[in-house]
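Lab notebook, design round three. We kept the backbone fixed and only want residue identities now. Task for the bench partner: fill in a sequence for the structure below.
Input structure tokens:
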């Protein structure tokens, strides 16, 4: 039994393989590299029962994660978030079993902690001392925090109007933090120059192969929490798409080792109408997306005008007979409010977008009444105070609350 069954890295475009024992970024052909495991062996050595009594974090799946040596793990207790039933909302949508995988409860308040935990741990194992990344906020915050815990220097570049709290997180964690008056794509160009000039480890989305491995654990957890029965549909708010690609990768790996069987869930990539390159590509049955000019949405984490892994997102959607859906900011903000009212959950605008899409797909009959539907809430609503502006009445000292009867 090995701690990890990591075998090598493989390019999903040209098929080239390479060793996973040194720092790797993109494949020479320009595509992201994916981690591959000795799944045959793992299918024989590993059983679902062996998870009983393991730690309640994503590291419970260490055999299917890339860190070879337990000592290199950098953790803040991430993973194993609740899968909550949403019965009142389900009734409202006309879906008999609607569940929320709630990522608001991970360190830093967004699921980005998963990618950071595994990405930073593997960086430690590979001897990385300095990393850099562009971000829409949450990823930079998470990587800065985990890098601080690991003693790695982090350089972070984010749009000036990214959620303010993510700036504080990154700065407090001691990252070299820079803002740019532009989009994540503009931040990406600045980081690419720094990487080339200063020899930093490029932790940009999918430019290192291990962030996705952390994110895929959302898919494993959903399966474990449903008793290894598969839901019919999974909806995911899609920016760079790593979460969705990761969930699909997890499903394929679990099927390969014999832990799940049958039809895979239909995967739904949800975007905002103000930034919907994947939805447009899906509607046109294309393999890749095009850059979305002047993108804008209140759901900041999914404001990604062109994703490096767009073809992998689209592949996951096509191969599972899924869909790609765009919702307006008005719809997603209304849904955020509705979910707090009906279920007591203050979720992030990105998660609310995924719920708004579930409502739409149920209305259109694409989701059927008896189906089990899992929606990813990727972060905490409290990180976005500006999307929930309220004006409660102000009382003078000693004044009474007005009677409802009068
Ligand atoms: C980054 C982010 C997303 C998008 O995640 P990808 O896996 O890059 O598509 C969604 N929601 C929140 C809150 C995020 O921070
Ligand atoms: Zn390649």
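Proposed sequence:
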């Amino acid at each position: 039994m090995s701690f990890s069954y990591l075998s090598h890295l493989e390019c999903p475009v040209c098929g080239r393989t390479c060793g996973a024992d040194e720092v790797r970024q993109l494949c020479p052909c320009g595509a992201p590299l994916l981690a591959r495991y000795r799944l045959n062996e793992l299918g024989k050595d590993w059983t679902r029962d062996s998870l009983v009594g393991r730690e309640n974090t994503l590291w419970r799946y260490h055999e299917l994660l890339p860190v070879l040596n337990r000592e290199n793990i950098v953790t803040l207790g991430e993973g194993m978030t609740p899968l909550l039933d949403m019965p009142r909302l389900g009734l409202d949508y006309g879906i008999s079993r609607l569940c929320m995988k709630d990522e608001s409860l991970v360190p830093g308040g967004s699921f980005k902690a998963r990618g950071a935990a595994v990405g930073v741990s593997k960086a430690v194992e590979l001897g990385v001392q300095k990393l850099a990344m562009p971000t829409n906020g949450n990823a930079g915050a998470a990587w800065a925090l985990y890098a601080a815990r690991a003693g790695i220097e982090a350089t972070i570049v984010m749009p000036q109007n990214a959620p303010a709290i993510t700036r504080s997180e990154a700065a407090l964690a001691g990252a070299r933090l820079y803002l740019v008056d532009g989009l994540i794509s503009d931040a990406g160009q600045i980081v690419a120059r720094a990487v080339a000039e200063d020899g930093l480890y490029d932790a940009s989305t999918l430019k290192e192969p291990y962030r996705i491995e952390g994110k895929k654990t959302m898919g494993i957890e959903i399966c474990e929490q449903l008793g290894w029965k598969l839901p019919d549909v999974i909806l995911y708010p899609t920016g760079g798409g790593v979460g969705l690609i990761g969930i699909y990768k997890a499903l394929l790996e679990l099927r390969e080792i014999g832990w799940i069987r049958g039809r895979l869930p239909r995967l739904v990539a949800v975007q905002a109408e103000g930034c919907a390159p994947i939805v447009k590509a899906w509607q046109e049955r294309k393999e890749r997306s095009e850059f979305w000019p002047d993108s804008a949405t209140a759901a900041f984490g999914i404001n990604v005008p062109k994703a490096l892994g767009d073809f992998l997102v689209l592949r996951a959607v096509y191969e599972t007979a899924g869909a790609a859906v765009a919702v307006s900011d008005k719809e997603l903000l209304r849904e955020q409010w509705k979910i707090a009212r009906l279920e007591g959950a203050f979720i992030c605008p990105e998660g609310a977008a995924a719920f708004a899409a579930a409502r739409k797909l149920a209305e259109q009959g694409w989701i059927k009444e008896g189906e089990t539907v899992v929606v990813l809430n990727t972060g905490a609503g409290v990180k976005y105070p500006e999307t929930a502006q309220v004006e409660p009445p102000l009382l003078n000292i000693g004044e009474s609350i007005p009677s409802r009867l009068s």
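Keep this in mind before ordering anything: The CA atoms of residues 11 and 33 lie 5 Å apart.
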